[in-house]
Amino acid sequence: MLYGLVNFGIQRFIIFPSFLSLEREEAIKNVKRSAEAIQGEIHHLDILCHDWAAWDDTYEFIKSRSDNYFKSNLSLTSFTGSKINTIYFVDAKGKIIWGESHELETGKIIHLTEFPEDSFPPDHPLISYESENKPLADIKVTGIYMTEKGPMLISSRPILTSNIEGPVRGSVIFGRFLNEKIIKTLVNQTKVNFQTFPVMHGSLPEPVKDISDRITDESRYLVEVSNHDNVDSYTTLTDIKGDPAFLIKSKTSKEISNKLLHSVEMIQKKLN
Fold this sequence. Notes:
It contains seven helices and nine strands; from the N terminus they run ααααβββββαβαβββα. With 272 residues, the chain is α+β, with helices and mostly antiparallel strands. The chain has two domains: 1-40 and 181-271, Beta-Lactamase; 42-177, Beta-Lactamase. Strands 2-1-5-4-3 form a five-stranded antiparallel β-sheet, with helices on one face. A four-stranded antiparallel β-sheet has the order 6-9-8-7, sandwiched between helices.
């Protein structure tokens, strides 16, 4: 009887709380992995944008407006093959030399109000580079750009020669919508069950809006036990302006602690 009481006490008041703490830590790790997976997609997009921006052919195109460059590089397959929704070429004064956005599934051209028709103002966040004390290869704007059709992963790079030399002739901008298809791919890659909620135009559902309001710079991650089966963890990612872009929610199974709790309950029944 004494042994049973001691065993019950150890499991109920020492082991079980430690498992709850471990679950909380795992939940935070999972939402961090979710955010890192999205950042990884931005990084891959930026590599592709850099390849196009630091290229002699692009450097010459901005000056010559070559039809050969256009025919060779700016067909619909350039969008669909690289899974890019938006490609823009802008000269050093902000004038748009060429730019389009497409639905990848249909190839249809779409118009986004966040991309001007003729030119970008000099202070536009997509072409306002923080270049002080930076080598040309490190000058860029990357992150999340909010559009009327939802969050877009974005990369903007200065147009340079293939040797990463100037003078800068403008910018290349690549964008890819962060849609359900990409999220599903990232869920499969990370093995983390997560979803995103755009923070725009008051679109957050009421239950998660309260959670979004509670996430701050000092407290970047929030963990809540939503039900008997899962621990939910949350964080937000900001856009290129520094404003909240969307809320990330990940689910972590409580399978281990639930089994331990069941064991504790069985011991308690025997003691009773």
